[in-house]
Specification:
The protein is an all-alpha fold. A two-stranded antiparallel sheet has the order 1-2. β1 and β2 form a beta hairpin. α1 packs antiparallel against α2, α3 runs antiparallel to α4 and α5 packs antiparallel against α6. The longest helix has 37 residues. The two termini are 35 Å apart.
């Protein structure tokens, strides 16, 4: 996490400053702005790492959940406040300065939604099928939006800087290529996931209410109760 935070600050201050060649006053503004956002991003990464630890832990005290949810809420509100401040004060540099606000907002939203879904799973309130679908699409949509926004951010920087075939241009091209490949991989994986669901729907019949009642057991894979399931040729019943 320390390396990620350091890379964030170095990229934003040195790289953006070198590309746009701002005056010292503007460079100080950008440095202060990215320092504040980097501080919030560090805590956002800490919250995500803490959440990933909690989902594999047992008997987590309620106060731990309250603290983590409170921290995520504070980060979310602070990000929105910074975005409003950016619109009000730095309109001429809105696209450059608001990029990190937007991506931080999406990261925090993703962690919050996944956390709420996890708390719902822990409390066993209702079936889990819909929660898993919401979690998947939340992660897919937020990650895709972050990648698209990042790609647009790099292209915007390239537009402002122009193409001069320097080392900075090479680094920028490599970043654009990396983001584009990640976006293509994300969309390709989603397409494969959708095709797998379509094939499963076509290949295996859905279990009737009578079959589920006769089976009267939890899913052998996820160990959760079943309100809908698929029947395999061998007769076993599983969740999608």
């Amino acid at each position: 996490m320390y390396d990620r935070a350091l890379n964030f600050l170095l990229f934003k201050v040195v790289f953006v400053g070198a590309i746009l060649e701002p005056r010292w006053e503007e460079l100080l503004i950008w440095t202060a702005w990215f320092t504040i956002l980097g501080f919030l991003r560090v805590f956002s990464m800490l919250c995500r790492d803490r959440f990933e630890f909690l989902i594999v832990s047992s008997n987590v005290p309620t106060r731990v959940h309250v603290k983590l949810l409170s921290m995520l809420t504070v980060i979310l509100i602070s990000t929105i406040a910074l975005f409003i401040f950016c619109i009000s004060v730095f309109r001429s540099m809105l696209l450059l300065l608001s990029f990190e606000c937007f991506t931080l907002f999406l990261d925090t939203i993703q962690t919050l939604v996944k956390y709420v879904i996890h708390l719902g799973d822990v409390s066993h309130q209702g079936p889990c099928e819909s929660r898993r679908t919401v979690q998947y699409y939340t992660e897919f949509i937020t990650d895709t939006m972050i990648l698209v926004t990042t790609l647009g951010h790099y292209l915007h920087i390239m537009y402002l800087h122009g193409i001069s075939f320097t080392l900075i241009d090479a680094v920028l091209f490599l970043n654009i290529r990396s983001v584009f490949n990640n976006l293509r991989k994300k969309l390709s994986n989603h397409q494969a996931y959708r095709q797998a669901l379509i094939d499963m729907e076509a290949s295996y019949p859905s279990a009737t209410e009578k079959q589920l009642a006769d089976y009267d057991d939890d899913c052998a894979i996820c160990r959760d109760s079943m309100t809908s399931a698929k029947v395999l040729p061998c007769g076993h019943i599983f969740h999608l």
